[in-house]
Amino acid sequence: MDKSLDYNNLGLLYAWSENVKHDYAKAKAIFSKSCDEGNSIGCVNLGVLYAYGRGVMTDYTKAVELYTQACNMDNRVGCYNLGLLYDEGYKGVRQDYFKARELYAKSCDMGNGSACFSLGLLYSEGKGVRQDYIKARELYTKACNMGEAGACNNLGVFYTYGKGVRQDKAKARELFGKACDMGNQKGCDNYKD
User: What catalytic reaction does the record list (predicted)?
Assistant: First the structure.
């Protein structure tokens, strides 16, 4: 039995459950114990507390440390969250698209659809990489197939305007519908047009 996972699950109850009164101080202590025992999910959850200032002072430097620890244990959410911090350049974290790209790629390769979508955005916008609509299309397709609604919408835009693909308005409409069905408002708006 993995006690570090049990600790993490208990921490989740205190931090985010609707059935248990939130106690971020308890959640922090439990996530810390889970992380200290080598559970990468505990490290990610502790990092989230620091990134959002839940029960602790907001501390992006500490969040980076914890997400890095989780990413080094091949936790795809840790790599993705760390990539987000570098992509956006939060207080105390210097914006670095190259580093964000590396982290998104690692997380995407581990099956994180959000990371594939974010990596596609970097290629689409030419941030930290040479702008490459074909690579962006490949990543949006992968992310869309993993259930990322925003990626389906963006892929629909590519088909509408022929970015990295042959223009195909029927395919675009299909993708907008898929995005809309997943709850993406832009997809719904584009489907109507």
Answer: a beta-lactam + H2O = a substituted beta-amino acid
